[in-house]
């Protein structure tokens, strides 16, 4: 696999974030998002070595609203944990850990749109690839980046 397409995507995301004067979390989400999406699409895994530092960094970036960020992380992660517990075949543990970190970067009113948009993206990937099993991480990352940047 060549590094040109991921580098192009990363540069595009950073350019859009710069033009929109997006918060620092947008740049962090772009970098980690490209790497995590590639890993998840290829290996169907979201490694802790990437998801946990992302969660910590996103929470630190929200120090000015730490209480709301921690609550959003708990709500978003908890909702994904509930899906994982009720239907383990639908979602992996890495998705739950990723959702905790991503929730910290979003305001509470954006959590439902993030869940809906991430599901739409995941279904779109499934339709494009005609696969029955597709990872949910790229959808989570794309939805969060869009909502955090706009």
UniProtKB/TrEMBL annotation:
GO molecular function: aspartic-type endopeptidase activity; methyltransferase activity
GO BP terms in the entry: methylation; signal peptide processing
Keywords, comma-separated and alphabetical: Methyltransferase, Transferase
Pfam families linked: Peptidase_A24
One GO term describing the cellular component: plasma membrane
Domain Prepilin type IV endopeptidase peptidase as annotated: residue spans: 28-125
Family named by the database record: Belongs to the peptidase A24 family.
Protein name: Leader peptidase (Prepilin peptidase) / N-methyltransferase
Organism: Lentzea fradiae
